Amino acid sequence: MAHEKAPAPWSAPGTAPANGQAQPHYLRPLLHTPFFEASRPWIQTDSFIAWAGYLTPDVYSYVEQEYFAIRNSCALFDLTPMVKYRISGPDAERYLNRMVTGNISKLAIDRVLYTLWCDDAGYVVDDGTVFRLGPQEFRVCCQDRQLDWFLDCAFGFDVQVAEVTADIAALALQGPTAFAVLQAAGFSGLEALVAMGISRHAYDGYEVLISRTGFTGDLGYEVWVAPQHAAALWNTLMQAGANRGITPMGYQALEMARIEAGFILPGVDFISCAQTLRLGRESTPWELNLDWTVALDKGHFNGRRALLESKTRGVRRKLVGLELDGNKPAHGALVYADVGNNVQVGEITSALWSPTLKRNIAIARIDAPHCDSPASFWVDLYLHRELQWERRNVRSWIVPRPFYAPARRRAMPPPLR
Amino acid sequence: MSTAYDAIVIGAGHNGLLCALDLARAGRRVLLLEAADQVGGAATTRSFAPGFQVSACAHLLHGLPQSLAQELNLSAHGLRFAATQLSTYALDPAGGAIRLAGTQASGPGLGAGDVAAYASLRTRMGRYAGVFATLFSMTPPRLSLKGWRERWDMLRLALRLRLLGTAPMRELLRIAGMNAYDLLDDNLHSPLLKGALAFDATLGADYGPRAPSTVLSWLHRLAGEQQAGTLGLAQPQGGMGALCDALAKACRAAGVEIRLQTRVARIAVKDDHASGVVLADGHTVAAPVVVSSAALRATLLGMLGIEHLDAGCVRRVRNFRSRGLVAKLHLALRGTPVFKGVDAAALAGRLLISPSMDYLEQAFNPSKYREIPEHPALEITLPSVNDPTLAPAGQHVLSALVQFVPYDLGPDPQAAKARLLANTMATLEQYAPGISDLVVASELLTPADLERAFGLEGGHWHQGGMTFDQFFVNRPVALSHQYRSPLPGLYLCGAASHPGGGVSGWAGRNAAREVLKDGVRHGA
Question: Rounded distance, CA A235 to CA A39, Å?
């Protein structure tokens, strides 16, 4: 029996391997985004990750350089793999209002809302952003695919739910010069665009949608086009940004920025209740410290009654911001109430030594009642130093999130640099 | 907020009536709303041909608790029984029948071994049914067992189970989830006897005797019979409607206001709490408590509305299985039919056409493919034999349950219905030659017709299948809240709630108890 020859690992999908035979698609299940070819020349490390079924750069060249571009000039990030749904129809608003915790009836056209959605028990299924594109049209962006849940919620509503992840190409342009770059590229009127706002542009014969949104906590925009215009958009922005420090960035740099911004990630800082196996690992919005995203006064929505009840019951733990002594990020470390490490009160879910703040920061799950305590905690840290593990007890305390929130992220008009 | 009523009960079937009655007896001001022009729901009597009256849906009482009839003094409200302790006759296609009365089986062709084995099996099943009967008056507990009553109930259940003795308890736990076919085959020989018992195990179910949970539905039926005490299988004078008429009289005496021909369009909601009902004519009636005996989906997805429910709850409610497979045949007969080899006394009883378990299984099989059985299984009663008021003198009414008839009759329901009638008549003719010539008028109600006429969702006899996954704490659906709907102030008291179908009234009474426990009483 002839064995199928495994493809050379460096051959791109859709290209013929050396033996000239077409590759079966299932041997390379990861997709390329529509920006892949255009961004190829900037990819120096060949360091990729699989993200929601796509192959995307983890690092283009140097993570530090990409990170500092976010904070000092601007960075360009391919966010096409982010899962996107189109929600449309006469009942679209009612449907979303029943599904998510935020108040969609207060969401104006061309505005974006960060929200959560919960199951019947009031546990968070996922978080994401809802873009209102029209009276009856919305786009929901989130981390995980959940068409089954969205369709379950659709029963009884005159609404269409469609996954459009592959139908929309998107770039995030984040950093102090992001506005300047877009203006230089010829997108006009953005000076009037407020944070969480959307503007539409007819550009060079194609449609571009720009939202003042992002995952970095900085001044930034997300730019949305049809896939066939992706390459043109990439090149346009890279050219316009050439003198403004534009730098393509990968996932790692974004991860650093999002921790500084205090944003949380499903699967990292909390587990979707659709994925927990062990009892008690789910989270309520109260436990994620996202009380502000829950509009209890908007009428009924999924999990509302359970949320009212859990509010009176109190939280089991809370997701909080921590600052630690020293400069070693405390990835996955356990948090104790006492220096002797006898009473564990939580664990760290995301950690970073912030290059901008010069502070050692972390997001952590801390058990009640310690999660409201002004007292110090002790983090049990293991450091690998010159091939030797060293154990440290590092002092830590709760600090407000976001850790880093420059005024320019919401400034009107946005600064040029 | 001051309202004229403390509670509104939707639907004046036996569960709705009993719920209203218990609430009124506890001092609540109760309004009972019924869409039809008479009370009774699926337990009504009506005319289907000039001079001929019939129990339009359910036609025998097999689980009305004797204690209930006594406690409510229903005889003072006009309830009489035309017959009690009816025997069952398993008709032999060759003529004759096996008579079943309690633990006694008798008849030609029944070996001494089977007589003894039946007595033994029936006695054992009776003891197991006694355990199940303790569940009926219970509110299904939460796993966390909150409060003394839930703990006491579970203790009582455990005790009943334990008091069976070690071996019987083990045997009950072994057989409770299994299928009737194997259980009966393990114990008995006579195909006719097994066919009849398997019929009881699948009556009203949406599966044949080989399906798991058929022993459960048999136990459920036997538990009901046990509660009926000396009533046994009973036929109210004037048909099943007479029971509900008596309950309605008791209700009115207790102060319940009953409005007929009053359809509820939707349940009014204020501040996430039931605040009354909006009638089909647009009027609103306010009350802090609304209790619905209507079917599950009609209540929650129809009258309440999806926007007041969580998506997971909606999914469970949508998936509540209520595939009814029972059709109802009414014949007006100009004379007394003669069943081959069966004496006239048997006509007062309950006649079964289910000559073997394989016959029954084969009657079930076509329903899986939305087809009509060639040889349906039947439960036949001639109510006018015990109650001559139902038919003109010398003439008779035949009322039969016909199994297994699919809800969806395919592209041409009329043709399918005509075929079903022809097949049913041919089957009857085989056992009662010449019966066709006696027919003056006939009426055949398919599951879809029963749904239209009585609001039985999916045409299901019990508003929803009685299987383990829809039983006790899982009835109507998992995460049910003890007769409370997810909306505060709205309760469910129909057969879709525990303990399910059979005209026993427990769902209504248990729900009333929970309403009273919550003590909501904003009125006055």
Answer: 9
Please give the angle made by the CA atoms of B194, B199 and B203, to the nearest 5 degrees. Answer: 160
- What confidence tens digit (pLDDT) does each residue in B91-119 have? 999 999 999 999 999 998 899 999 999 99
Task: State yes or no: cis peptide before A266, omega within 30 of 0.
Answer: no
pLDDT bucket at A29, cuts 50 / 70 / 90: confident
B478 touches chain A (CB under 8 A): no
Question: Beta strands A137-142 and A206-211: pairing type?
Answer: unpaired
**What token pair was written down for B495?**
């057969």
Axis crossing angle, helix B214-228 with helix B180-187, rounded to the nearest 10: 70
Give residue B63's pLDDT.
87
Distance from C-alpha of A397 to C-alpha of A376, rounded to nearest angstrom: 5
Nearest chain B Cα to A149, which residue?
B311
Q: In this predicted structure, what is the pLDDT of residue A340?
A: 87
Q: Which of A22-31, A236-245, B380-389, B427-436 has the lowest mean pLDDT?
A: A22-31
The answer to whether B272 contacts A155, with C-beta atoms less than 8 Å apart, is no
C-alpha dist (Å) from residue A92 to A136, A405, B136, B486: 6, 33, 44, 24
Nearest Cα neighbor of B494 from B329, B322, B291 is B291
pLDDT digits (tens, 9 = 90+) for B354-384: 999 999 999 999 999 999 999 999 999 999 9
First to last CA, chain B: 8
Question: Residue B15 half-sphere exposure, CB side, CA atoms within 13 Å?
Answer: 31
What string of H, E and C letters represents the secondary structure of B58-122? CCCECCCCHHHHHHCCHHHHCCCEEECCCCEEEECCCCCEEEEECCEEECCCCCHHHHHHHHHHH
Q: Which two tokens stand for residue A292?
A: 């502000």
Can you tell me which residue has the tokens 């009774």? B40
Cα A339-A343-A347 angle, rounded to 5 deg: 90
Q: Where are the beta strands (DSSP E) in A96-159?
A: 111-118, 124-134, 137-142
H or E stretch at A334:
strand A334-336
Residue range B251-293, pLDDT digits in tens? 999 999 999 999 999 999 999 999 999 999 999 999 999 999 9
Distance from CA of B308 to the nearest CA of A (A): 6
Q: Which residues contact B310 (CB under 8 A, 6 or more apart)?
A: A119, A120, A302, A303, A305, A306, B486
Closest chain A C-alpha to B322 CA, distance in angstroms: 19
